[in-house]
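Box 3.1 — From sequence to structure: Kelch-like protein 2
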Amino acid sequence: MIESRTFNVESHSKVAFHVMYDLWRQQQLCDVIISVEGHQFHAHKIVLAGCSPYLRAMFTNGMLESEKNWVEIHGTDQNTMAYLLEFMYRGSIEITVDNVQSLLQGSSLLGLHSLRNLCAHFLQSQLTASNCLGIHYFADMYTCIELEATARHYIYQNFLDVIRTEEYLQLSEERLLDLLNSDKLQVTSEHQVFEAACHWLQCDLIHRSHVACRFLQAIKLVLLDMEYLQNIVSQSDWVRNCRKCQVRVNKALMMKQNSKALEQITPRAQPPSIYVIGGRNSIDSQLKSVERYDFLLDQWSTVPSMNIARTAVSATSYNGLLYAVGGECALADTPDDTLYLRCVECYDPVLKQWELKPELKIARSFIAVASVGGFLYAIGKLHGKSLNVQYF
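Predicted structure (token representation):
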């Protein structure tokens, strides 16, 4: 025989809160009045203290409000407080694009963390190019870490769309500089960053021209084409009217002649792309041409060709660079036979050039290539024989 047993009634608290909700709606047994913007809300201290750390501290920590049955709340409006009280009693709420910001503000004030998180996730689902800057600023103001990071990432990924919005033109100087200084901006070329800065400056040139020099510091001028630097940047009004800007442009022009200096420049994040490398067609037995599909622009373009034409070439990416490994090519005197290759090339999408790298120890084609832990691995058969692995 079991002398004792513990039972848990899962519906107990739900039923109790349902009764308290009915009492609240009928204003029965209420022991406190919450005043917001002159509007009075009757409520139960025990319910408010159980849901809100802010109100619990107010009622229990010996503050003046702990001895009163009337409390005035600042920092929110009466409509939002009505929603917050409803949530505290019922545990459910309708979040809309119209009330989400005020609900997040109010839930942050009262310490309603679950509601605050719901509002943050709702805002994440509403991110667009036209509102992401505002949402990011709002998240940063209320220390919504996950929302801030998500909004910032969205801005980086959709930068070319964001700069066409009204929010972008209304950015403060410091916020825009913070954005333009980031290497995580996904652009196809540095000239897009320069034009984004020009767009913001020209929106109110009279009041913004004095900060042009600061913005030029955020542009990686050395990554711009020589022709663009000379004909576009140098000839822009705010560069011609600023001696410091002219000095920076001239310095960039000189740096472009120094390959070692160029290697020290950190490129922006490249947008997602697909590369098609080498292969063959009905005319050529092997190709060295390369094409690139840009997800942002939704179009294919031709990029510089490899140094060595080949088919059955393998490829992988590492640290923002593209590697073409091995492959084969047809022999000139016997087109039906092929020569297996050991060559390895590396493509830099910023400098737009291929560079030969140390060759494979053994010629290979139709292999798998992967980058893991700072190494490149070439996995597969050699000369149509046994399986083998090399790493670089």
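Summary of the box: DSSP finds 18 helices and 15 strands in the chain.
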